[in-house]
Structure formats: structure tokens, C-alpha cells
Amino acid sequence: MLLPGIVPTIRDRVAQTAAVLVLGPIFEADLPEEQHAYRAGVSAHDAVRRAHKLVSRGHREVVDADLSGYFDSIPHAELLKSVSRRISDGRMLRLIKLWLRAPVVEQDGRGRRRELPRRKGRGCPQGAPISPLLANLYMRRVVLGWKVLGHAQRFGAEIVNYADDMVICCRHGADEALEALRDLMSRLKLTLNEQKTHVCRPPEDTYDFLGYTIGRCYSPKTGRAYLGTRPSKRAVQRVCRAISDQTSCRWTLVEVENRVARLNRLLVGWSNYFCLGPVSPAYATVDRHACRRLRQWLRRKHKVQSQGTTRFPDESLYGELGLVRLSKRTSSFPWAKA
């Protein structure tokens, strides 16, 4: 299967990395606090916490916005205007312009490449070191435009943005805010994905943002309802599919230690990100799936005809083989509600 993306030369990567080191601090001072992606000291967790905080403090109408191909839609002329407001060096501007016009390369698993022409006047090369900086710089126009046109004050609305993911938390008038957002995106030559963009009203509704579901949660101890965050169903399904892939029949000849180590890296990495809110139900689901899939893999490897629960009980998987149990990790997350 061909994987599209930019494949810059080593020289281009070095040059772009050097440019980011010089230009990054210059533009960082201009980026508003609503933007959380690709910035030192700011993470996706901060964006999720901010979205949750706004809903908890009365912004009960949310525009869950999805941009259609944001990186591929950024107009070069407008982006270069944003760059030139801070950078006056003509050589640097020409260099950035050349990087934006670099062709897209498709590459398959066998190392074969096919060069495709980039859409004229649009698109930021994904995978290039300078792309996050340029994407943030153009998204700044969206955030500032929202404020300059008076929408923030009119709807009591605040934007929370991470890369091409964005929610607008409003105190009122979310339907009108969505229309205002459509108009703003049209002015900036960007497009909303109408099928995925919608208005929701917590706590009756929930919405997903950066892999988390924000909405009504229930305390497992008291049954009390509260507004919180939890790993989304899609995020749980995605990691379960990854576990299934790591324990498929194509890995039967691999050593047990290798499979368990790979599963542990996957589980620990996933739980390090999905550690906000009541994570215990999601962790229990992932634990059950990991045990079941690893047991099936061990049955195939050792040609065991039974269900394998006697030969490979959970205690053996966790104790002898060292499989990570996510439900035991919640104690290391003091901010997570069990």
C-alpha cells in the first residue's frame, strides 16, 4: 500500500530544522494561548483540560469543528503574508516558498517512490520539520479572526485548538457561532467537514476531543453525575485493534518475550496519554482484550487445543510473562478519578 507524504532529502531536513530553531521563538511570542500544538511546555492534555474546564464553568454549548484536509488546504499566498510580517529576509522567504512547493512523494513498503504534483498554491508538506510551525502560524489567523470579528464576545465563546482539531465552547448561540465559523473559514480559504462538524450541548450531549470524550460521567462509588473526561470508545477500539495486530498469527514464530515487550510498550504508551478522568472502565476493557489475545497467541504457538485458561491463566500472563496490567497503573495517576 502506498503511503503518501513528503519525503525531504537529508539536506532539506537539516535546513528546515535549522530554520525552525531560528524562526520558532520569533513566532512563538505571537501565538495565542488557545493554540496548544507543537509548542514547548504545552501538550494535548492541556487542551483537553482547557476544553473540560470551559464546559464545567458554564460554556455549555460546544461547536465540535472538523477541518477538511487542513494541512493540504493552507493557501501559500496568505501563509507567506503571515510569515513576512515577522521575517523580512527575502532569501528565507524564497526558501520557505520552495519548501511549500515541494512535490508529494508516495512510498510503499518496498521502497518504491512515485512523485505527484502538489496542488498549485495550496498545501503544507506533512512530515517536514517546518510544517508544524507553518500550520500553527496559519491557524493563528483563525483564532485572531474569531476575536477581531467580535464572535468571542458575541457568543461568550473561546476556541481550544490543537493542530487541526478545534472546539469552540460557547455560553450561548452555538448554532449562530457555527454559521460565523463557516464564514470565517470561507474567508481564510479553509473548509469545514460538514459531516463531522456539529453542535452539542453538555451534559445532555457528549463530544470527542483529542481522543477523549467530554460530558456526563458517573462516580463509581456514589453514582453521582458530574462533567468529566474519559477515553473515548474510538480510542479504546483503536488500541484493541493494535493489540490484535500484535498478536495475530503472522507473529507465531516470534519469541514470547518479544511479543510481551511489544505489547507492554503499546499499553504503557497508550495509558500515558489516556490518563485523565475516570480511566478504570477503559483500562479494564483493554486489559481483558490484551489477556484474551495474548492467550490465543500462546495457544497457537504451543498448539494447545483447549481454551488455554488453565495453562495460561491471567496470573501467569501478568506474573510469569510480565504483561502490563493497566488497572494497576491508575494509582500512579493522582489526577485520575478511579
Describe this structure in words.
The protein is α+β, with helices and mostly antiparallel strands. Helices cover 46% and strands 14% of the residues. It has helices at 10-28, 44-56, 70-73, 76-84, 90-100, 131-148, 151-155, 174-187, 233-246, 256-273, 280-302, 314-319; strands at residues 3-5, 61-66, 104-107, 113-116, 158-162, 165-170, 198-200, 207-209, 212-218, 225-231. Strands 5-6-2-7 form a four-stranded antiparallel β-sheet, sandwiched between helices. The chain has a three-stranded antiparallel β-sheet with strand order 1-3-4, with no helix packed on it. Helix 4 (76-84) packs across helix 6 (131-148), helix 9 (233-246) packs antiparallel against helix 10 (256-273) and helix 9 (233-246) packs parallel to helix 11 (280-302).
Short description:
This protein is an alpha+beta fold and 338 residues long. The protein has helices spanning 10-28, 44-56, 70-73, 76-84, 90-100, 131-148, 151-155, 174-187, 233-246, 256-273, 280-302, 314-319, and strands at residues 3-5, 61-66, 104-107, 113-116, 158-162, 165-170, 198-200, 207-209, 212-218, 225-231.
- Note the beta-strand portion: 5-15%
- Low-confidence blocks of residues: 1-6, 333-338
- Derived from helix and strand composition plus strand pairing, the structural class reads alpha+beta
Radius of gyration: 23 Å
